């Protein structure tokens, strides 16, 4: 394990630095040297570099024991310096400095990915749409990314499993506090056969502000995001706007003017999102292509 990976994991697991400062340090000095003056510059005096250096060195001998305990639980921390870190996520402005993964790590680099999000209270129409789109996307080997929330999110994961596709769930807290509890069985299945991701250490309880932060990871992992039902001020629109900021495609499923859960997609379409009637509309916007990627950092 190199210096950068060790520093990133020690700081994140023990919460020695805020996630934003930790990312800032790594961007400014990818080697994360403890003797470099970069840290003082990055933190602007908020953190004493000497004190932080002592804390990191104090945690070094304990790191392997912590990682071994994580491994027993099936948890793999992936620092942003690692080749296992998802390429698409690495390209966004504020990627997590460390990802915690549970499941099939090959899914992070395998297949094209698309996000599906929507209301926690879908109508029969919304359920029909998510099942149909997910089935068609899985037939083309797209990996479905969502947030394991109630409603459309959980249904998109379940539909991809039913279609024998692959799916990635991004949770808001740590793995020891799966939320909502109604999706615990689904989460367990995904951790064994697909993959769950979090930017938080396993013992972290989900807080209200974790959910919008989680949304940037859903969109960041994906080439595009599909919004299936949601009110005008729903969390689904937060994901859509983050996708736009990240340069991703945004798709919206139109609904009835008399359905309050159609308000979000209609607003997105008015603002330039692509209205979709079938999976073919997505394939036209995101055609098959051979792209050679380069590392963004």
UniProtKB/TrEMBL annotation:
Q: Name one GO biological process term.
A: DNA-mediated transformation
Q: Which residues cross the membrane?
A: none
Domain Smf/DprA SLOG span(s) in chain numbering: 79-286
What InterPro entries does this protein map onto?
DprA (IPR003488), DrpA_SLOG (IPR057666)
Q: Member of which family? A: Belongs to the DprA/Smf family.
Q: Which NCBIfam families does this chain map to? A: dprA
Q: What is this protein called?
A: DNA processing Smf single strand binding protein
- Organism, by scientific name, is Bacillus spizizenii (strain ATCC 23059 / NRRL B-14472 / W23)
Output the lineage of the source organism.
Answer: Bacteria, Bacillati, Bacillota, Bacilli, Bacillales
